[in-house]
């Protein structure tokens, strides 16, 4: 049973490599050479897809059979580890198959889009007039270009707005500092004025004392 699981796993990897090479090649050749999907390429991919799906189902059945056999007997640690390993391998195979299938579908859709555009261009060259699909594609491209230009203008406007806001904040801080200094200037001016007045008063008192002493000395000298 374990040997059968390994054989199915090996078969899956072989088919996977063939699908990833032949599937991509058949899709590209089918669209590049003829401009449209060929019946042979579609059938080839479908047959490989069904074959891999069948291998996955057989591998799932084999894992279930091994699990039942292990459950009927006394499972050892090595058997449990092998069963877990086989389940992990099945999960990896399933994920790889889904990834390949998604890639193939994306490639097919991309090739169909290119084929449609190529047909529209050929029709335009042959008839000399633009098909509705081509007109829509051109209008869509023009709208996309306009939107990109508008996004650039909006981005520049936002950058300019941010710079203006920064300058306005800077000017606001400067005005606040100027106002603070103007509020402090009257206090400083008042302090200087009071200092000057006090100095003038001290000067007057000192002058009066000197004059009184001088007058007292003169009177004393004349009284002798």
TrEMBL record:
<comment type="similarity">
    <text>Belongs to the GOSR1 family.</text>
</comment>
<dbReference type="InterPro" id="IPR023601">
    <property type="entry name" value="Golgi_SNAP_su1"/>
</dbReference>
<dbReference type="GO" id="GO:0005801">
    <property type="term" value="C:cis-Golgi network"/>
</dbReference>
<keyword id="KW-0653">Protein transport</keyword>
<keyword id="KW-0675">Receptor</keyword>
<dbReference type="GO" id="GO:0006888">
    <property type="term" value="P:endoplasmic reticulum to Golgi vesicle-mediated transport"/>
</dbReference>
<protein>
    <recommendedName>
        <fullName>Golgi SNAP receptor complex member 1</fullName>
    </recommendedName>
</protein>
<dbReference type="GO" id="GO:0000139">
    <property type="term" value="C:Golgi membrane"/>
</dbReference>
<keyword id="KW-0931">ER-Golgi transport</keyword>
<comment type="subunit">
    <text>Component of several multiprotein Golgi SNARE complexes.</text>
</comment>
<feature type="transmembrane region" description="Helical">
    <location>
        <begin position="204"/>
        <end position="223"/>
    </location>
</feature>
<keyword id="KW-0812">Transmembrane</keyword>
<comment type="function">
    <text>Involved in transport from the ER to the Golgi apparatus as well as in intra-Golgi transport. It belongs to a super-family of proteins called t-SNAREs or soluble NSF (N-ethylmaleimide-sensitive factor) attachment protein receptor.</text>
</comment>
<keyword id="KW-0333">Golgi apparatus</keyword>
<keyword id="KW-1133">Transmembrane helix</keyword>
<dbReference type="GO" id="GO:0015031">
    <property type="term" value="P:protein transport"/>
</dbReference>
<dbReference type="Pfam" id="PF12352">
    <property type="entry name" value="V-SNARE_C"/>
</dbReference>
<keyword id="KW-0472">Membrane</keyword>
<keyword id="KW-0813">Transport</keyword>
